[in-house]
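Shipment paperwork, digital attachment
Item: protein structure file
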Amino acid sequence: MRGLVAQYYWAVRSVLRDKPELRKCLTRCRHCRILFFTHPRNAGRRDLGCPFGCRQAHRKQSAKQRSIEFYRSDAGKIKKRNLNARRSQRHHLAESAFPEKRCTRQQEHVSADIERHLQVVSSLIDARRVTRQEIRELVTEILRQLRIDKGKRLVYRGCDADNRSP
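Attachment content:
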């Protein structure tokens, strides 16, 4: 992992060397403290989460906390009891109705948050509006390329990929 972080910071430094005006768009994640570029309207903010997983992890944690608080209330307990009763009644029908899920994913998937981040950073670097379609084509082309080194591949996203934050 250390090598990937070093490559990432090398890329950030090289962008800053070519475009020093983007230094104001560089900020740290409030969770993992990694440096990342943000949109100019968010420049200077200290409460941002990085697009590499911390943003989603914080949103997920907040949603879980809200859910816990709701289901501990009287109205939540009644709703949960009704949901559980309906689920237990339909459980045996659902097993026979749906076949087993199989992995049909042929290519690696890049999350929408990473696509948006790449779009913002590419737009800042190129000083023009880069579309999401251009980002998808670029990522598809990069992911299609064969690796030169024969070392162990660090990132693997199979059917049971765990999408937790870093």
